[in-house]
Design goal:
496 residues; alpha/beta; Aldehyde Dehydrogenase, Chain A, domain 1; Aldehyde Dehydrogenase, Chain A, domain 2; 2 domains; seven-stranded mixed β-sheet; six-stranded mixed β-sheet; 15 helices
């Protein structure tokens, strides 16, 4: 038996786990906990202090290719189950996540850094997708077609695609797995999951619970290691029929190109560059509350995070003052202390915050609060508000993915909408106004897959999550999320 990789079980937060068996360091393939054939591993660190949280198996290309064999072998049996049988197993997986909510949240905080209350919220959010698709599994229905031919009987079916590869990010290490996997599994697909090398323990804990729930061997596989190594054989193998990825637009484009040779079904949830548009007639206090949520949830490390704030000139100074004051009050610290803002994921993220702030200031922006690395540590950045940010500043064109807000005034509705749409990203837009006609006009005009009006939270299992333009293709969540992992088959039979 392979030697287990080191996990810091002496850490006070790990020693308090109710179920230490949730901490796994091997990949999970074909129902077995699997080490790399060469014994390779990689370190996982706690972003709050840089300490080593543990090691996980770093599988090779050959190891990853073997996982395809397991998923392909398991596909026939899983797809042949009655939808009700798949539903029962998924339902049990959902229940187990609820029973182990606190442990799952603690693991997430130690490898991802987010405040513990946000981690608990993510576990609830992640579990909700499994619950939703446990029900949706029973309804792979499709519109019937009346025969257009004499003496013919017509049927249209939805059938599972086959093996689906799921590549997930570090910012939502549980929810991005369940949103994809539950939909694919409900449809009858088997899955290969590659979690971020920075947050693998959350994925492996989900695999442990999936096994307990009764998912058959080979149906749900988690392959850990370096992304380029793990994903390469999946891109080349035609048996991998679908690829679902959440991450940067740059990587998404690469996967798009590489998937062409095997004509994979693609589900891509890519970058965001969300505008927050505030008109003078909006409820100012409510708008400030929602702006704080839209910008600083997950320490700003969210593709839904508001990046560009456009405020009507007559209320511009008032909003800037109120928003900056609220931002300055946000607490910063380690996730287990449940602050408002936790650490950023890595040094690259911190460098980007610095770059965007320095560039904006150089071009004439004012720093109303924050603007530098926080005294809490090297990976902590002060929640920051920049006003009078010019249109040519980097932050107005690039996703910041951190706790820096850029504000600029506008004079007309047409100007605000034009500036909001002046981007190749189109994931979500936030709109604040009390005018029902303007709400309709703006909601129609905004080139974004989702529009949040006078609120921030809009996501959830029943809604189609996704963007336009270079923010992605297809949708996750809702019935559309399951349909993305199915093929439509048309059967025409002679009945005469």
């Amino acid at each position: 038996m392979a030697k287990a990789h080191r996990i810091d079980t002496d850490h006070p937060d790990m020693s308090r786990l109710d179920d230490p068996k949730l901490l796994r360091s091997f990949s999970y393939i074909d129902g077995k906990w699997t080490a790399a054939t060469d014994g390779a591993s990689l370190r996982v660190t706690n972003p709050a202090d840089g300490s080593e949280f543990g090691e996980i198996a770093a599988l090779s290309c050959d190891d990853s290719a073997a996982a395809i064999d397991a998923a392909q072998t398991a596909f026939t049996g899983w797809a042949a189950l009655l939808p009700q049988e798949r539903s029962t197993i998924l339902r049990r997986w959902f229940e187990l996540m609820g029973e182990h909510r606190e442990d799952l949240a603690r693991i997430m905080v130690l490898e991802q850094g987010k405040p513990i209350s946000e981690a608990r919220g993510e576990i609830d959010y992640a579990a909700a997708f499994i619950e939703f698709y446990a029900e949706e599994a029973k309804r792979p229905n499709i519109e019937s077609v009346t025969s257009h031919l004499p003496d013919a009987e017509v049927e249209v079916w939805r059938e599972p695609l086959g093996v689906a590869a799921l590549i997930t990010p570090w910012n939502f290490p549980s929810a991005m797995i369940t949103r994809k996997a539950a939909a694919a599994l409900a449809a009858g697909c088997t899955v290969l999951v590659h979690p971020s090398a920075e947050t693998p323990f959350s994925a492996l804990a989900l695999a442990e619970l999936a096994e307990r729930a009764g998912l058959p061997a080979g149906v749900f596989n988690v392959i850990t290691g370096y992304a380029a190594t793990i994903v390469e054989p999946w891109l080349n193998d035609a048996r991998v029929r679908a690829l679902s990825f959440t991450g940067s637009t740059e990587i998404g484009k690469h996967l798009y190109r590489r998937s062409a040779d095997t004509v994979k079904r693609l589900v891509l949830e890519l970058g965001g560059h969300a505008p927050f548009i505030l008109f003078a007639d909006a409820d100012m206090d409510q708008a400030v509350d929602e702006a704080i949520k839209a910008k600083f949830a997950t320490s700003g490390q969210d593709c839904l995070g508001a990046n560009r704030f456009f405020v009507e000139r007559s209320v511009y100074e008032t909003f800037c003052e109120k928003f900056a004051a609220r931002t300055a009050m946000l607490s910063v610290g380690i996730g287990m202390d449940d602050p408002d803002i936790g650490p950023l994921m890595n040094e690259k993220a911190v460098a980007k915050q610095r770059q965007h702030v320095e560039d904006a200031v150089k071009k004439g922006a004012r720093v109303l609060t924050g603007g530098k690395v926080h005294q809490a540590g090297d990976l902590f950045f002060e929640p920051t508000v920049l006003s009078d940010v010019p249109a040519d500043a980097l932050i107005m064109h690039e996703e910041t993915f951190g706790p820096v807000a850029a504000i600029a005034p506008f004079d007309t509705e047409e100007e605000a909408l034009a500036r909001a749409n002046d981007t190749e990203y189109g994931l979500v837009a936030y709109l604040h106004t009390q005018d029902p006609r303007r709400i309709y006009r703006a909601s129609r005009a905004l080139q974004f897959g989702m529009v949040a009006v006078n609120r921030t939270k809009v996501t959830g299992a029943p809604i189609p999550f996704g963007g336009m333009k270079q923010s992605g293709v297809e949708r996750e969540g809702s019935r559309l999320g399951m349909e993305a992992f199915t093929e439509v088959k048309y059967v025409c039979r002679d009945w005469a």
